[in-house]
Amino acid sequence: MNKRSIETWSAAKSADLYGVKSWSGGYFDVAENGDLCIKPSPASKTRVSIPEIIAGIRDRGFEMPVLLRIENILDSQISLIHKSFGSAIKKLGYKGEFRGVYPIKVNQQEQVIGEICAFGSRFHHGLEVGSKAELITALSHLTDHQACLICNGYKDAEFIDLALYARKMGFNCFLVLEMPSELELVLERAAALGIDPQIGIRIKVSSQVGGHWAESAGDLSIFGLSASEVVDALDRLKAEGKLDCVRLLHFHLGSQVPNIRDIRTAVHEVCRMYAELAAEGCPMGYLDLGGGLAVDYDGSHTNFESSRNYSLEEYCSDVVESVMTALDERDIPHPHIVTESGRATVAYYSVLLFDVMDVSRLENRPLPDVVPDDCPDPVHNLLEVYQAITPRKLQECYNDAIFYRDEMRQQFNLGQCTLRQRAMGETIFWAIMRKVADTMDDLKAPPRGLTDISYPLASIYYCNMSVFQSLPDAWAIDQLFPIMPLHRLNEQPTEKALLADITCDCDGKIDHFIDPREVKRVLELHSFEPGEPYYMGAFLVGAYQETLGDLHNLFGDTNVVSVRLGEDGGFDIVREQEGDSVADVLSYVEYDPKTVAGNFRNTAEQAVRDGRLTPQERRDVMKAFRNCLNGYTYLHSK
Ligand SMILES: *Cc1c(COP(=O)(O)O)cnc(C)c1O
């Protein structure tokens, strides 16, 4: 490590190192004292220390890991989206309004939906549902009759009936046709209940997009009507005299669309379709552009799949301008623009807080002064390589080291090298790797072939959390999330590490980290001092992670704590939800905790009968069993 730069390290350097300004959306910042802080809104001067929030949470008896939700951020994101569309509409002289809706599937937790409805009511922010369960939650929260309630997803008569009743009660509810056969059912139920629906039509757009969810659009997308199916639907509606029910056109490009050009192309195509529907005599009035507004997880501002090459302002003005240009050509009145941005609305709002339990690192053994004469040649050669390392010869020394190590192993297999000789050779080999890596850190332009050398040298930081439960997309689709320490940021990090979770699964690790230019395989961290807490955070985890997470190794839901930050720098804990206990997760997988405890009690009593336990010892054993059964599934820190 570069000892000489320790004195000159600063909190600002940490902010650079972890790219905080690039990915934080203005909500997170590093304070002089080395704490990572939250800002209630990007423009605010207030900063609230996350370590202080953690202390407050722990004082109240909650343990790590904790999912922290910051109400102010959700509030602020909803405002930002509406204000950005609002100013684009004003600037361009667009005649329609913006009506945002939140797609419930992105984070369905009751608190999230409740807050979105509360914070969104001043903008008539609505909800999008894709199932009966989601429609029920929407109807239990939404009270604003100007807000849109968009019913996507496959529907049966029950779903349609409930949506029709919602319409009758005054909700601005739309039934969006996802497949041709739904139209017959909608017409039938509408006639039976005597309620005219507002119908939306979802179309397949032919333009393809980049990013993970490329298949959501295009001819092979599973949702939406093709051009000929749209024509069939219009003919059928005309025949029934119900063409005037068609009010909305919908499409969805897929989530996390990194390239603004793909969005523009698709919006243009959809506007052409809108114009055609209007020309066919549909009253229309709403254009629903779906989700897709991306989050810049890695802060690179590129069309890389974990990023986006546009800002919110650009997205809004590009969308409004494209719609306007396309419709003005045909003299068609401007519709209300609906978007279903989920990811961009909720991603920033949640942070996973966790602590490090332990660290394992490659042994750093002292080098032998001399290699005994009777050692095989490759061991002698390795020591020579070590002594020959200079900045100019890094690649050469690295290649030689690999060569001699392999040769030594071969000789071991042939019985020409003893265990002790091999151990000495490997000690020298790792010393070479470390010296090459350290020398590389000092070089402006390190050899390209060596950039991955820190990976095998990395320490492993064992983190008190489950990737499968809390960051499922990091495991399933290699999604990058910003991850960093939450304190000691005024100290120079001296370790390069990958993270392992506490599941017993070799996939339960994180070894891809954000970087402005590429993807890093190791993360810079501070040395771990046993007995002293080391807290880390995974950021931008508010979208999709909570209910996609699973019970791998029976690690359950984490504790959830919601805070509201005050402009005075204080915070209120506004809601707490205890995570799953062991008994909870056992009941999810068909155990009855009472039976489990009863069975164990019988076993313990048998041990008393057999003379292995005294009755008093049985009491202690049962107490330990019950503590575990009723306790948190994660590890207790000391
Ligand atoms: C998933 C989904 C969304 C949300 O997309 P984001 O990219 O998260 O904004 C919106 N609309 C529909 C129809 C969806 O399926």
Automatic annotation (TrEMBL):
Active site as annotated: 504 (proton donor)
Assigned EC number: 4.1.1.19
Gene3D superfamilies linked to this entry: 1.10.287.3440, 1.20.58.930, Alanine racemase, Lyase, Ornithine Decarboxylase, Chain A, domain 1
CC cofactor: pyridoxal 5'-phosphate; Mg(2+)
Chain ranges of the Arginine decarboxylase C-terminal helical domain: 582-635
GO molecular function list: arginine decarboxylase activity; metal ion binding
PTM-bearing positions, type N6-(pyridoxal phosphate)lysine: 105
Chain's role: Catalyzes the biosynthesis of agmatine from arginine.
A biological process term (GO) from this entry: L-arginine catabolic process
Domain (Arginine decarboxylase helical bundle) ranges: 373-449
Any Pfam family: Arg_decarbox_C
Name of this chain's protein: Arginine decarboxylase
Signal peptide: none
Keywords on record: Decarboxylase, Lyase, Magnesium, Metal-binding, Polyamine biosynthesis, Pyridoxal phosphate, Spermidine biosynthesis
Family of this protein: Belongs to the Orn/Lys/Arg decarboxylase class-II family. SpeA subfamily.
Calcium keyword on record: no
Enzyme class of the recorded protein, top EC level: lyase
Organism this protein belongs to: Desulfovibrio ferrophilus
Orn/DAP/Arg decarboxylase 2 N-terminal domain segment(s): 87-347
